[in-house]
Amino acid sequence: MSGVLAGRTALVTGSSRGIGRAIAQRLASEGATVVVTARGTTPSVSIREGKATTIPGSLEETVELIEAAGGKALPIPADLEDAEALDTLVDRVVDEVGSIDILVNNAGFADYASIEKMSPATFDRTMAHYLRVPFLLSQAAIPHMRKRGGGWIVNIGSSTGLSPIRPFRDYNKTSGDVIYASAKAALHRFTQGLAAEVVDDNIAVNVVGPSTAIMTPGAAALLPEGYDTEPVEYLVETVLAMCTLPAEERTGHVAFSLHFPWHEKLEVKSLDGCETLPPLEPPSWANPNIAPSGL
Questions:
Q1: Which of 61, 87, 151, 218 is 20 to 30 A off residue 201, Cα-Cα?
Q2: Is 0.70 topped by the overall pTM?
Q3: Which residues of the chain have pLDDT under 70?
Q4: Which CATH architecture has domain 9-264?
Q5: Is the Cα torsion angle 71, 106, 22, 78 positive or negative in sign?
Q6: Is the peptide bond before 167 cis (omega within 30 degrees of 0)?
Q7: How high is the pLDDT of residue 46?
Q8: Pairing relation of β-strands 254-256 and 203-209?
């Protein structure tokens, strides 16, 4: 472990499980004090198609994993669909820890349905999670980062935000991911525009998305049976890479988690930072709209 983030504070949303938890673990392994947030400290209920399902994972478990590996973590529950909780989250982080250097907008909501069948409520909720929430949290974090002389914002994107492969695959015809993908495309463009606005403040803003897909408790119900997924560690290492360089050197990118480490010959570590994982080449069937460099 290099300790490259020693003395830094990171806020990772949606970190009770899955990708958010993995990001929190890896940032903590490099010395960051990580504030983890989700709707509550215990496993949360997910609503899809009007049905409630409790998905495993809690903030308490995330904190325990980080502390067991020698890291520092603080849970601050916040329901990002609650206006007051959203508006006060960054200030609560600064009040508790004293600063915020890194913001990872990972929390999300996905309830796939075809355009014909999707409810307006699901449309609104999806767009709010992937655009309005990153907008408001970034807006709140930027003044604090500016006072610190810089910072890093990483938004979790998706290859679905790129143009679909042609001829259209059966997945695109049947998955019902169009609104989710549209929200991710908007998030990519939001990131690039915000990067230009704050580059002179030494605040880097980047997107990191899976080159394929990552199997998480939340994604399991959305991915087709037998879908080839990738280990989360490669995405997490790419997130870490986006939190280490000054904005003038790396900002405004949409990076993909197998392509970028492979092209850059990036050493990918385990979530605790103690082991080195083997290089993993992007599969030939990945979206061809991803540049070989992953950027």
A1: 87
A2: yes
A3: 1, 41-54, 217-227
A4: 3-Layer(aba) Sandwich (3.40)
A5: positive
A6: yes
A7: 54
A8: parallel
